Amino acid sequence: MPHRTITLSQFILEQERRHPEASGEFTRVLTDLALAAKMINREVVRAGLVDILGETGTINIQGEKVQKLDRFARDVIYRVLSATGQLAVLASEEDEDIVPVPEGQPVGKYVVNFDPLDGSSNINANVNIGTIFSILPRISRDGNGDLADCLQPGTRQVCAGYVMYGSSTMLVYTTGNGVHGFTFEPSVGEFLLSHAEIHIPERGRIYSVNEGNYFKWGEGIKRYVDWLKAEDAAAGHPYSARYVGSLVADFHRNLLYGGVFLYPGDRKNPKGKLRILYEAAPLAFVAEQAGGAASNGRQRVMELIPNSLHERTPLFLGSKRDVEDCELFVQEKHPAIRVDRRAASPARTR
Ligand code: AHG
Ligand code: MN
Ligand code: MN
């Protein structure tokens, strides 16, 4: 029986019928994000052909050189979403402050926090990059949305997901009823259901981290990564190291194959590099809905309440058992540490 061809829009409507409890009003926001993704995808795949590469020469709030595609992606998403009447307010990696709905446009019920282009440093190398989005209900009562509307914990998200632009462009999202993946079919201009009900293996054999930071990490993470690399057939070690440097690409591979992504804090950046609102929280929602986990080493990422738009967090994300091991190492509670210590200090002779 050939696989039924279901577009993203058809799937969203079917989901609404199957889960009446999910109001689905944010459906319009999700379908508009899919439209923006198609427009960004068109530029990303042509990036090598048109003079859109290179840097705009401006510096964004993160102090990083803004590549033209970052700005383009941010503007496309802003233009498409702010005309829907669904939005109360936006926040993005490329904007220092919240972005209100334009004058004269109707103000709606939803907040979108997004990373317009994730993995920007990979743009010129034609390595997969992505867009990450998080949709929340506003908490302010009326008028334009405000900062508090954006600074909500991940548990308040009604929808989250990502687009990954590459050899095939995919959109993966959750509304709290499982994780579903769609592959863009350029010939019909539609995202077609290709990965229904994605489940991440409970334990993987892959770890993804920038080991160039190893000597800046705390002891817990060093021990954890050393443990993953040690020869121990019974434990299924060593794991394989896979690191693309685009969070969306590293996460997507681990979501399908199993594995753990780590971006720890370190001596220079105790909170690490990744931002709660538009990187950690949305991917945490997807990971948990796929049966995985997301932690900052001590707490569920989904429960973190950011104090500012660009607040960072250490991020351990992926297969449930692997994230648990990582937390136990960070908290110096993993049984392997005690064994290690006993081995390191042989029993005193009487
Ligand atoms: P962005 O391009 O949105 O700033 O995100 C880049 C992030 C993330 O995609 C990736 O996991 C991480 O930067 C890689 O950082 P390092 O180069 O320090 O490993
Ligand atoms: Mn990013
Ligand atoms: Mn980005």
From TrEMBL:
Cellular component annotations (GO), alphabetically ordered: cytosol
Family membership noted in the UniProt record: Belongs to the FBPase class 1 family.
Binding site for substrate: D118, G119, S120, S121, N210, Y243, K273
Protein name: Fructose-1,6-bisphosphatase class 1
Alphabetized InterPro entries for the sequence: FBPase_C_dom, FBPase_class-1, FBPase_N, FBPtase, Fructose_bisphosphatase_AS
Cofactor, how bound (note): Binds 2 magnesium ions per subunit.
Catalytic activity: beta-D-fructose 1,6-bisphosphate + H2O = beta-D-fructose 6-phosphate + phosphate
Needed cofactors: Mg(2+)
An annotated GO BP: sucrose biosynthetic process
Major localization listed first in the record, in broad terms: cytoplasm
Locations listed in the record: Cytoplasm
EC number: 3.1.3.11
Pathway: Carbohydrate biosynthesis; Calvin cycle
Pfam family, one: FBPase
Residues that hold Mg(2+) 1 according to the record: E93, D115, L117
Gene: fbp
Domain Fructose-1-6-bisphosphatase class I N-terminal: 6-195
Keywords: Carbohydrate metabolism, Cytoplasm, Hydrolase, Magnesium, Metal-binding
Assembly, per entry: Homotetramer.
Keyword Coiled coil belongs to the record: no
Recorded GO MF terms: fructose 1,6-bisphosphate 1-phosphatase activity; magnesium ion binding
